[in-house]
Request: fold
Amino acid sequence: MAKGHNKMSGSGELSTIIGVDASLEGRLNVEHSMRVDGRIKGELVSGETVTIGPGGQVEGDITARDIIVGGAVTGKLNASGKVGLESKSVLSGDLKASRLVIQEGAVFNGTSDMGKVQRKPVVPTPRKINLTED
Reply:
């Protein structure tokens, strides 16, 4: 197994590569990261990162910690961490993620859900001002 470095997500153990001349139909589950440079029709599930390379095409849903799209995806993305859409990517479908990064040039047709955002109200810190005459 080789160590893989994704352009947007950092590193992780890359355990599966679907090569440029490969096509797969069905469901693929992997424990570590995977990269798709070929064509997949079905569902992808990973415990780490799924990277769709610039020539990769996926028609189906993807579930992973992080998802990086450089190619074309038609389907739902569900990431517990980050979804990254690289500059030449095309995503047609909805996504759910904690963080979303969309590079200039990416195409995204769908809706995004980043969960409930808990924001603390801004409360100014009280200051004490002494007004005395000298």
Observations:
- The CA atoms of residues 91 and 108 lie 5 Å apart.
- Confidence is low (pLDDT under 50) at residues 1-10.
